[in-house]
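Need tokens for this chain, all 76 residues.
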Amino acid sequence: MNSKDLTLTAIDGIPARVPFNPFIMHLAASLIGVDYCRDYVQKPEILVEGQIKCASLFGIDHVNVSTDAYREDTRQ
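Here are the structure tokens for all 76 residues:
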């Protein structure tokens, strides 16, 4: 079962297993070697790159492109 099917069955309440979806903002920035506050939270393409890298490395079932990262930037 692929990640999409697993997630959809979880929404229906009958997953084969619980989808793996950790919140990985700081880890994602670190793994691609970018500054969290300057690059990761302000450039969506970099956020996506980090999320996809983590998904590939750790077998994450779906990525999260939450706006929480931008709200955490204290330099606003």
